[in-house]
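Human: If only I could read backbone structure tokens as easily as an amino acid sequence. Take your time, and here it is.
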Amino acid sequence: MWARTPINMSVLHQTYYRVDNWVRGLSRIRYAILVGIVSAVGVWIVSLFTSSLNLFYAVALGVSNIIVFYWFNP
């Protein structure tokens, strides 16, 4: 079968906590922009595999996420 490669969990934990601390340190607007960009890119990648979504939908979702996360995230 497949050979199991041991995963160094301490490296994963360090990476997780570094990213978590970086995100927690972002200002409100930067966090909203990050969420908007990540969601827009994610929707755009999904739209590459389906025919129902398009670039306009991805951009519209990203912009609306930026507005919502900035407005309602304390």
